[in-house]
């Protein structure tokens, strides 16, 4: 079971919405999930209709069954200050560097530093333990379980603060480089805390603890980008999770009707209506036939894209189109669908 679930996708596919829904789906049955944003867009806050997220883990939703969803908008500058304090105990010296502009320089100019900090912070949340939480679970159940069989336990026996961490990651076009940046850093820094931290992050990202899901639409460009992304992830030995096809519209015509709509039957229908005594048939039926033809064309294009996705040999799941848009109710609806499909669990 993957405790770090990374969600990527081409722009416009709804990856942030799917990431939010996945966090809710994973938080059911009393679980606790952290939803992480790394692009600085405050998309999570907009979806949950809350104020802009600060650099702190804040509860934003309650899932069915009493589970909790926390959110964190990772700020690269603050993450670097955390890093300096954690490994070098700089404290006030680190804050002085920020005032001098050195922190901003490091996170915006130095190649790869920003991505190292963002992935490192997410992986820290995955590894973070909370023994008091696990002890309270044990006491409430009144039993001593075999902790080796419990996914919320690590080898030292401490319960994790979060059962799952869901990352709303960068788009598919740069997801592999984003996740693999610590591998490059570990190769550049041969020894020392930077090398050790980079290796620790990659041990999480390249392990069964992580799954990288790609969100797409049944359209040619997103599907092709998904195929390219999967190939890049596999080449980098990063774990591919599922393909999540978002915004799938229902088929309103059966196969026979689709085939009929694909042809031009205007004259035949006009004659039949005229024979029945209906005047102005062309003006009445024409727009409906246009819509039917467009639907038939879309169904055929979607069939082609499903075939292309099937060739990727990755578990693929389809999520419905939300007619009312991606509001809070829609997120809960998608979470219910993801839970029913068994995605991520």
From TrEMBL:
Residue limits of the ArsA/GET3 Anion-transporting ATPase-like domain?
A: 5-117
Q: What InterPro entries does the record point to?
A: ArsA/GET3_ATPase-like, ATPase_ArsA/GET3, P-loop_NTPase
**A Pfam family name for this chain?**
ArsA_ATPase
Stretch list, region Disordered: 127-159
Q: Where is the composition biased (Basic and acidic residues)?
A: 127-157
The protein depicted here goes by the name ArsA-related P-loop ATPase
Starting at the broadest rank, the lineage of the source organism is: Bacteria, Bacillati, Actinomycetota, Actinomycetes, Kitasatosporales
